[in-house]
Design brief:
single chain, about 425 residues, alpha+beta, 3 domains, five-stranded antiparallel β-sheet, 8 helices
Length: about 425
């Protein structure tokens, strides 16, 4: 890490660290060789199949000419696979450049934060206004340096050591005069949500409709392509009985895709806001029915199998049941249900608690609901202290487990 004050402003540089990155780089380079071979083979299949379909000649010696239905179905599958494979290869190249030849520069110039990501020969530079920066800190299992900017969550760097990123975040906050914990904007609805009025005159909270429209258009185009392939395969099956099973399978997928597209276009879930009450409603066309009522809000933290932190905002129909108290090895241990009944998820995000906290605070103000936040450092510290105390009283193995809880608590505090 390099901190320096230049003539025009202030600069922080973060670079890759550690010898293990070279081992990972060699493995990634070897994988990219296989990726290139797979990419070339898929392109060769598409080109050869297209030429065979246009000329009517067999794709190779000893092969029969391709039928239109099966050729289109196979070509569509290879094209989708090739698209995903290409995206994966580009991401792998970017990671290889980041590990071996990466550099992140954070500069404060004229009241703006200039972020430059250098990845080998490639360079990406963006500027952010100081007035829209709300928080700078570490986030996620890998403790990457992140920034809350307006209503977005932006990664600044994952280079350097954890200590360097901690020091860099503190120095950057001091340079920009940004508090360590931002003040919650209770009157602002976070990005990704809309507060609208339904045709019946009810006030509801819905996911961003522009995103829904893009999803609908994408699904519609995919359904049309699948329907065209199904039509060609079905017409071909009138003359070839062996084409009937593939045609039926394609028909099933087409109907499922059509049903999903109709749901995106005409259906949605919405939260009706009333005083002291949130009602989850399922809408399809002009029909609507209530499926759940919530009177409290709860924000919780969990960890998946990969160790990534997830945050989820719930609506509860009633307060959580009192914790279950049990006696184990002479010690009293309190058990809390990880998934209490009578709750529905409002939103769930990985590595981002600020957006959900703002959404919960907004709902609490607009609907007059109680909002409990179990993701704050104080709440998580108290929960870990309760668990550690119970484990220490349960015996030798419990005391060993308590030490692991201490390590977890230290990591949680850092995040």
């Amino acid at each position: 890490m390099t901190l320096e004050r230049t003539l025009p402003g202030w600069r922080l540089k973060l670079k890759p660290h550690g010898c293990s990155r070279y081992v990972s780089g060699v493995f990634l380079a070897f994988w990219l060789c296989g990726w290139a071979a797979g990419e070339a083979f898929a392109v060769w299949l598409l080109v050869r199949g297209g030429i065979s379909l246009l000329t009517g000649n067999p794709p190779g010696t000893g092969h029969k000419p391709l039928t239109l239905g099966l050729a289109l179905a196979a070509g569509l599958f290879i094209l989708v696979w090739l698209t995903l494979w290409t995206i994966g290869g580009i991401a792998a190249f970017a990671e290889l450049f980041r590990m071996l030849w990466g550099e992140d520069r954070l500069e404060v110039l004229g009241g703006r934060l200039i972020v430059t990501h250098i990845r080998g020969p490639f360079r990406n530079r963006r500027a952010y206004d100081r007035t829209s920066i709300r928080r700078i800190g570490l986030l996620g299992l890998d403790n990457r340096l992140v920034m809350e900017y307006a209503r977005d969550h932006i990664e600044l760097s994952r280079l350097g050591t954890q200590e360097e990123r901690v020091s860099g975040a503190a120095a950057l906050r001091a340079e920009l005069a940004i508090p360590e914990e931002p003040v919650m904007r209770s009157g602002v609805l976070p990005k990704g949500w809309e507060d609208i009025v339904t045709p019946e005159g009810a006030r509801v909270l819905v996911a961003d409709r522009s995103v829904r429209q893009k999803q609908t258009r994408t699904a519609f185009i995919g359904t049309l392509l699948l329907a065209a392939v199904t039509f060609v395969a079905a017409r071909n099956s009138l003359h070839r009985s062996q084409s009937i099973p593939p045609s039926i399978i394609l028909l099933v997928f087409t109907l499922a895709a059509a049903a999903g597209t109709l749901w995106l276009a005409r259906g949605r879930y919405e939260w009706r806001l009333e005083k002291g009450l949130m009602t989850l409603r399922k809408r399809y066309g002009m029909g609507v029915r209530s499926v759940f009522q919530g009177r409290r809000l709860l924000l919780e933290h969990s960890t998946d199998s990969d160790g990534d932190p997830w945050y989820e905002l719930f609506a509860l129909s009633e307060p959580d049941r009192p914790p279950t108290v049990r006696k184990i090895a002479g010690a009293t241990i309190t058990w809390r249900s990880a998934r209490p009944k009578n709750r529905r998820s409002i939103a769930r995000k990985m590595n981002d608690t600020g957006t959900l906290r703002e959404l919960g605070q907004w709902l609490a103000n607009e609907a007059g609901l109680e909002f409990e936040d179990r993701t704050t450092p104080a709440a998580r510290t108290a929960e870990l202290a309760e668990l550690r105390s119970a484990l220490e009283q349960s015996g030798r193995f419990g005391r060993l487990a308590a030490k692991l809880v201490d390590r977890l608590g230290n990591k949680t505090t850092t995040n």
